[in-house]
Amino acid sequence: MKRYWLLFSQAVTVLLAAYFVVATLKPAWFMQPGETPAVALFQAPSDRAAASAPGSFRVAAQKASAAVVSINTSKAARRNPHSNDPWFRFFFGDQDNEPQVGLGSGVIVSPNGYILTNNHVIEGADEIEVILNDSRRSRARVIGTDPDSDLAVLKVELDKLPVIVLGDSDALEVGDPVLAIGNPFGVGQTVTSGIVSALGRNQLGINTFENFIQTDAAINPGNSGGALVDASGNLLGINTAIYSRSGGNMGIGFAIPVATAQQVLESIVREGQVTRGWIGVEPSDLSPELAETFGVKSDEGVIITGVLQNGPAAQAGIRPGDVITRVGNQPVQNVTELLSKVAALKPGKAVDFVVRRQDRTVTVSITPGVRPKPRRVQQ
Known about the structure:
Number of strands: 21
Strand content: 25-35%
CATH architecture of the largest domain: Beta Barrel
Distance between the termini: 108 Å
Oligomer: single chain
CATH class of the largest domain: Mainly Beta
Largest sheet: 7 strands, antiparallel
Number of helices: 9
Structural class: alpha+beta
Strand order of the largest sheet: 5-4-1-2-3-7-6
Mean pLDDT: 81
Helix content: 10-25%
Shape: elongated
Radius of gyration: 31 Å
CATH superfamily of the largest domain: Trypsin-like serine proteases
């Protein structure tokens, strides 16, 4: 009897083992018609990860992160001229002469070692150190800066540099997903996600030339100069500023479009500086009160309230009270647009301006000059 029981138990064990193997390798043999097969228990790890991360931005993050760097700066402390005076030390104590340090981010945009960042990240720095995502470190030198756009170009001498792919910021639409990559608060490289909240933000008082991408992707101190990328990991902008009452992220961040950054980069690398057009006028947004004051019959364009004597506009015949409606073939609606379009003109090359003068329209050919260096000179 024991022998029969032993044979029975062995047979059951073999049948159960066979069932388990077949059910694992060929689950379809045991499914009812129309039933969907479950995920195999022995699915490859990469397949399981892909199946568990729908809508993941990891490919974009991995593609772009390698080209985003951390930037450490140091500035020698300014010694107080009275620090050797005993009475000064008695009342104020020994002044701290430790160097000032700062941090920010940057983006490698060329295999030759060119890096885009914000001017305010490296402004006044005596030493600049760049730290790559692969932990390599290098001293960087400043190739050129453009305070009017708050951009700067650095260069490092390293081999086999990862380079970000430039995207098309002009094709952006509100609602498009974006990632912000940088080194916030010096904690290390961080990726945050969000959407494009608005386009063409200006009149914020941040830069002279403003045409910001607004995003709700978290941007914090240390992110300045970092990358704003699309869902494919292509560069859309250089993260620049945030709107905040506390100093931290409140869901409103601003980035300089890559189209602007690329123009600045090419000008600095080619000429060592950014050269912009200038016509020498004082413009104002057109209002009913100004239109009535100057006797203008127009409801669009930018009114000129002052003209610099012997400037390009004055030499071409522009007068106070003229309303500029077009620069070349591009319409202008406000002062910011006029400022940007005139700045984009090539000095020395005449351009037609369409002007509304009282009740008639005239075309005036103006040859722009070079924009003066001071930031606050009126356009």
